[in-house]
TrEMBL record:
This is Chitin deacetylase 8-like. InterPro entries: CE4, Glyco_hydro/deAcase_b/a-brl, NODB_dom. The gene is LOC113515885. Residues 51-165 form the NodB homology domain. Gene3D superfamilies: Glycoside hydrolase/deacetylase. Residues 1-16 form the signal peptide. Keywords: Signal. PANTHER family: CHITIN DEACETYLASE-LIKE 9, ISOFORM A, PTHR45985. Transmembrane segments: none annotated.
Length: 379
């Protein structure tokens, strides 16, 4: 399949649309650790009561001196009941990003993932993007993030496309070419009770296509972490917490806590598909009662003996080798080597894509110009 990815990076989306359709999944041929059919079934036939309930807390967009205060307050110094550090994943885009603070988050044990270099509008840019464009936005961002934040290139494993706008096969082909492991962009409103478990794109997906176009080709080795939708107070599905239309009063901490727990229980009391708390930091910053409710909920999770706050990559690692919760809690905690940040404040840096001069807080040598797509290191 590698020649297919290379082919599609050279030609346009129109050419890539001529790829053969992925076939219906054959569960006899599609076996873990490297292949999984899209399914609500718990991996390896585990019973729900024996399955770890993973909780995925994720934040989108750049990291800066304002939102880092929320992350420090809500996430730092947490442990799960197995005495392992609690995890979270940050889908970070480039513009106005503080790479020194990204380095701090990495050294706290959180996962850094990719949210594109440009995060540009209109949304149709992502809908119509060719594999080559997706490679520049995410493949080049992987190099950019590792360079400016001084974090290991191989630690960057995940992608979330801006506006949750899939581009058919394009982003997944670029991910395959650049060694990116999983995508967490694709919402499901049809598979929420029970929820849809992560799966690979070796075969055709059965997931509902909420924001078209969705992938249709066989792209082995790439995982999908479905964004299992919440339900608001009227039962309307919402992929991210801050997109739910009808929610409790923003000043009512107790009501928000119940709202979060109700959505959590849809997973915990069912097939225990990973539960996502997907949000933008600003929503917590402007609604302190919501932030307090989230802290209470995370305290609850950290005290449950069968629920675990983890980085998204840790879910994929468990999917490759699913074990019951009594074995999971005996496994060693994740390890990583902290990296140093040789702090450098750079600017003003001229931009080649607009009239704005930028400043950058990085862990490396200052670039010549402001990095952007087609010049991701600002050389």
């Amino acid at each position: 399949m590698k020649w297919v990815a290379v082919f599609c990076l050279v030609f346009t989306l129109v050419a890539c649309q001529d790829l053969p359709l992925a076939e219906q999944c054959d569960e006899e041929l599609c076996q873990l650790p490297d292949c999984r059919c899209s399914s609500i079934n718990i991996p390896r036939g585990l019973q729900a009561r024996d399955t770890p309930q993973f909780v995925l807390v994720t934040f989108d967009d750049n990291v800066n001196i304002i939102n880092i205060d929320t992350y420090r307050e809500v996430l730092y110094n947490r442990q799960n009941s197995n005495s392992c550090p609690a995890g979270a994943t940050f889908y970070v885009n480039h513009e106005y990003n503080n790479y020194q603070l990204v380095n701090e988050l990495y050294n706290q044990g959180f996962e850094i993932a990719l949210h594109s270099i440009t995060h540009q509008t209109p949304q149709t840019y992502w809908q119509e993007a060719t594999p080559e464009i997706m490679a520049r936005e995410f493949g080049d961002q992987k190099i950019q993030m590792a360079h400016f934040a001084n974090i290991p290139y191989e630690s960057l494993k995940g992608v979330r496309i801006p506006f949750l706008q899939l581009g058919g096969n394009s982003s997944f082909q670029a991910m395959s070419e650049y060694g990116l492991e999983y995508d967490c962009t694709w919402p499901t409103i049809a598979y929420t009770e029970p929820g849809l478990w992560p799966y690979t794109l070796d075969y055709a997906s059965t997931q509902d296509c909420v924001i078209a176009p969705c992938p249709t080709a066989s792209i082995p080795g790439v995982w999908v972490i479905p964004m299992v939708s919440w339900r608001d107070l009227n039962g309307t599905p919402c992929s991210m917490v801050d997109s739910c239309p009808i929610v409790p009063p923003f000043s009512d901490e107790d009501a928000w806590y119940r709202f979060i727990v109700t959505n959590f229980e849809r997973h915990y009391l069912n097939n225990r598909a990973p539960f996502g708390f997907y949000i933008h930091e600003w929503y917590l910053a402007v609604n302190p009662a919501v932030k307090r409710a989230l802290i209470r909920f995370l305290d609850l999770v950290n005290n449950l003996n069968d629920a675990f706050m983890v980085n998204s990559h840790e879910v994929i690692e468990w999917m490759r080798n699913p074990v019951p919760v009594d074995e999971y809690v005996q496994q060693p905690c994740r390890t990583f080597t902290p990296t140093l940040c040789s702090a450098n404040s750079c600017g003003p840096l001229a931009s080649e894509h607009n009239e704005v001069d930028y400043w950058m807080q990085i862990c490396n040598v200052c670039p010549r110009v402001y990095p952007w797509i087609n010049n991701h290191l600002g050389i």
